[in-house]
Design brief:
Blueprint lengths: L13 E6 L6 E4 L5 H18 L5 E3 L8 E4 L26 E6 L2 E5 L12 H13 L4 H6 L10 E5 L3 E4 L1 H4 L12 E4 L12 E5 L5 E5 L6 H10 L8 E6 L5 H15 L7 E7 L4 H6 L5 H9 L6 E4 L5 E4 L2 E7 L15 E6 L2 E5 L5 H10 L2 H4 L3 E3 L10 H7 L3 E4 L3 H4 L16 H14 L7 E3 L5 E4 L4 E4 L2
Parallel strand pairs: 2-3, 2-4, 4-6, 11-12, 12-13, 13-14, 18-19, 19-20, 20-21
Antiparallel strand pairs: 1-7, 5-6, 5-8, 9-10, 9-22, 10-11, 15-16, 16-17, 17-18, 22-23
Helix pairs in contact: 1-2
Amino acid sequence: MTCSTCETLPPAGELLLAEGGKSNWRIVVGKVPSVYEKKAAKLLQLYFLRAAEAYLPIVTDAEPAADCEIVIGRTDRDSLSGIPQAKPMTPYLPDYDSYRITANGCRIFLDCAGDRANGEKNRGAVYAAYRFIEDFLHFDILYDQINNDYRDLTLDRVTVPADTHIESSARTLWAGNIPPYPGETVMYMLPQVDLATQIGTSVLFKTADGKILLIDGGFAGELENLAAAVKAVTPAGQRPRVDAWLITHLHEDHFDALLRYLDLAEQGQDVGFDLGEIWGHVLSSAWYERQGLGGYAGRADRLKNPPAGIGYTELNRGDCFDFGAARMEVLWTGREDVRCNMNDSSVVMRVTADGKRILLLADAEGVAGEALLRDCTPEQLSADAVQIGHHGTFNVPKAVYARAGATDYFWPITYRWWYCDDGTGLGTINKQYGTLAAMSKTRLWLEQLKVPREKIYCSYVGVAVYRFAGGQANFLP
């Protein structure tokens, strides 16, 4: 496929963006672009120079439309995109961070994937630019910039499939169509579809004999997605039921979906699934007060005193029990006699089925990590797969991953936090805590442990699944 302004022919079915240091393409933004649209355009221009030594000028849509344009955000080229305008899926799912990359004719559109009326808030164009740079210009941006490793690739050719459509939105991250894998024990790491919060951990286990365990679940806006996932793995004709819901610790991005469920249950509303019991480990009110988190004591009370018909089970270190066809081992719970913060109060578990083991680290940090290394035998920490804490090196030390010796790593993290970017530049989220360095260093640890990139499953891509039978891990389409 080619166009009137292309001087060379790319392979069939591809758009040729640059070759031999030259390009006929340009970048188009609106007459008054948002700060995010400006950032996306500048990123693309910079990385085309670095990757292919090709300069793409940035112009506004005041210029007449032409072939060979990369269109960023809201412009008068919208009618040429061929993309219908999407609506948010529910009021709980704003789409500020959604994005899409779509080729149509001899144009490529990078934009938010949702309500364009929110244009001044939508960071999606920036994340679309990151995805484009990584997929088609082959730069690992986070590793590149945090390590000051400014290698230029000098690609001879840059091409993009003519039928490209990449989208990350509540629609594409929705878990309502996950396969149930009857007769198998399966773990699903669910992405966060509430694109206004972009953080949180949400995991669903379905055992070979049909038991369902939810772990955490994220903020309140994730509840509909959780209900859709539970329904998807429930046999047809049966009422969806979660046998147990584990809350690893009481931070909002782990607890609020359950809190909303309990609120709706007390009001007599049907959320779409029943709940058997809640699992957790609650420390004393005095401990929360000492942490400066006195309000969390009330959350602990809600956890331990659910509505009628829902039970509560306190988990403790050393507990080992069967949950349907799976074996549960509690390796760590919070302690009041050590310097333990809220993340270190996380419940750490290992789940075993069909001879395969998953180590669930929740948000456990250094205190918990050192205790795991000190108090657990090498066999107890050994695992085939590991759930990484989404805070990176603020979580357990590298030695825990080394001791586990896993093949597959599941990282519940969204692209805003993966890049530590609020849309205006790397490192602009939690700058005071060094989040950018923490994320990059965790990736470096995994490289040092010789974990291939394709074996690290980040939830911002979509639903990741681990099938215990055979130890198969992959992203679901």
